[in-house]
Fold this sequence. Notes:
eight-stranded mixed beta sheet; single chain; alpha/beta
Amino acid sequence: MTNRIGVLGLGKMGMNIALRLREKGYEVAAYNRSEWARVAAEEHGVHTFNSIRGLVDSLGENRVIWMMLTAGEATASAVGELRETLSAGDTVIDGSNSNYKEDIQHYDSLRDVGIAFLDAGCSGGPSGARAGMSITVGGDADSFSRVEWIFRELSLEGGYAHVGPRGAGHFVKMVHNAIEYGMMQSMAEGFDLMENGPYKGLDLEGICKTWNSGSVISSNLMKLAGKVFEEDNGSMLSGIEPYVEDTGEGRWASETAIEFGVPFTAITHSLYERFASRYRYKFGYRLLAALRNAFGGHEVKRKE
């Protein structure tokens, strides 16, 4: 086991991972393009470099690189550069939210030159990266065993597992995030009914606290909802635009469900609801109103 590790990417997640490892007594070297992030990390005892080559050369033998970059092109580019700069026996861990199919490509590319690749699905957000995450890992079992210490150090007790071969870690994380979509949609609809149903002025923050004290639907998401209502201070979230973004995992999960013929009703609906939130003037809804008027003479509300 090495006591030195390289971190590629010092964003919110990467920075907190580097700091957690540093606080646990490990020597941490990191690369980041932005100087301000390197300066911030240096203040906490992390050695930083302005090139991947510089980072790799500082690590010695049996190197371990944890990547925390944006999924897609940024990660693929870094894997390509690491392929040219690392040596046989080294290990690359991708902690991003990469598509599991891309993991398979990265694994094959690095395996050809003797470099191990593990995909790590990380859950817990920036606060989890600092205080302990939940991590699902895909890749060869022997590669996992060699660097299992890092997953133990970065997770809460019992919060990591080797779940299968290449790509499985990010596949499981993809499903995790898809379930999250469905849970969030259910919560949004339930609180909408409480806000606009027969009982006005319900204490939504207090309800969240009550539900988090022994109810079946107690959860971290419910705790976060309570915090949202607390900070909102009764303004009915009026300062927030009803625009809900998605980061890809819900789409990939729905596409995979279609590919394998797996019913995915609630989660796919929650993804479509996110799409619907982005249309201030929904053409489809306007057409529905026009059709009701056309066949049934139902009144249409005209824009002023």
